[in-house]
Amino acid sequence: MLFKRKDSKFWWYKYTAPDGKVVRQSTGTTDKRRAQELADTCKAGAWRVSKLKEKPRYIWQDAVVKWLQESQKRTIKEDQANFRWLDAYLGHKVLAEIDQTDIDRIITAKLNQGVSYARVNRITALVSAVLHKARNYWGWIDYIPPIRKFAEPKKRIRWLTPDEAAKLLAELPPHLEAMARFSLLTGLRESNVTKLEWNQIDLQRQVAWIHPDQAKAGKGIGIPLYDEVMHIIRSQFGNNPRYVFVYKGKPVLRANNHAWTKALARADIADFRWHDLRHTWASWHVQAGTPLNELQELGGWSDYKMVLRYAHLAPEHLARYAANVVTATDS
């Protein structure tokens, strides 16, 4: 039977499945004819599963619910927002019937919003991840349509020279200056600095650590605290019993804020984000001769490819080979 709920504009359906379970579900449509067709299809599907032992016909929304229940991603809120957008295109679509046409509709709709290829790729990658889970782990489907990926232009790494960094630090308010200086010396991400707690620091051994559940790569990071870093940490004594970096005794929720933006303008530094302090730290390390494998461990990257982004900043080891062309041109 179809019915309307006071809290919903859509038609809902209700039926008793062969196993005695009462099923209530929104049809996601205000069209009564389409709602009835969906209700009849779902009821017939339940009968086929029970009597003919067919594989259940799950819809996209079923997969989304299961995905969110199992997900431990740090970007879960971004996934939820993307799922809400995708619902208009896949919501009640039977999972096994999602095809290339559906994927193309999603891609076209995103491109019509004027977003970048990178943004489109994030949406389609999420669809692909859910479908792969449904096939490989849940056994809900047997086929996944091909999902194209757009080539993304590689961005130039933004980093500061020591002189530029000094100008920026001079313009920052004291609490942000300490955090920015700490970031430049350790390479830690913004959230790892703003949420750093005293119980993550061993002053005797002069080390700190980021727990696996706090790290983007999902593995712990150990941070050696040499003299310059220890000086910054000692300057924060007594400000807060739990957090290392605070403002007026309270935790700093975001370092990349209005005060940061204004300081950048005063220092005449453009196109620079807080995260670029990490790029600056890595760039300085490479230019100073730190081996890439050691930098990978210091920065907590799980993929060596991420560290290779900085390799071009230290080409000195190629010098003895670069001159080989001289012999060839002289002959």
Q: What does this protein structure show overall?
A:
Belongs to the 'phage' integrase family. This is Integrase Int. Pfam families: Phage_integrase. GO terms for molecular function: DNA binding. Residues 155-323 form the Tyr recombinase domain. Helices cover 48% and strands 8% of the residues. α2 (60-70) runs antiparallel to α3 (76-90), α4 runs antiparallel to α5 and α7 packs antiparallel against α9. The mean pLDDT is 87. A hairpin with a 5-residue loop joins β2 (11-16) and β3 (22-26). With 331 residues, the protein is mainly alpha-helical. 20% of the residues are buried. It has helices at 32-51, 60-70, 76-90, 100-112, 117-136, 162-171, 174-186, 190-194, 227-234, 258-266, 276-287, 292-299, 304-308, 319-322, 324-330, and strands at 2-4, 11-16, 22-26, 201-202, 207-210, 221-224, 246-247, 250-251. A 3-stranded antiparallel β-sheet has the order 1-2-3, with helices on one face. The chain has a 3-stranded antiparallel β-sheet with strand order 4-5-6. Strands 7-8 form a two-stranded antiparallel sheet. The chain has 3 domains: 2-51, no CATH class; 60-136; 162-317, Intergrase catalytic core (hpI Integrase, Chain A, Orthogonal Bundle).
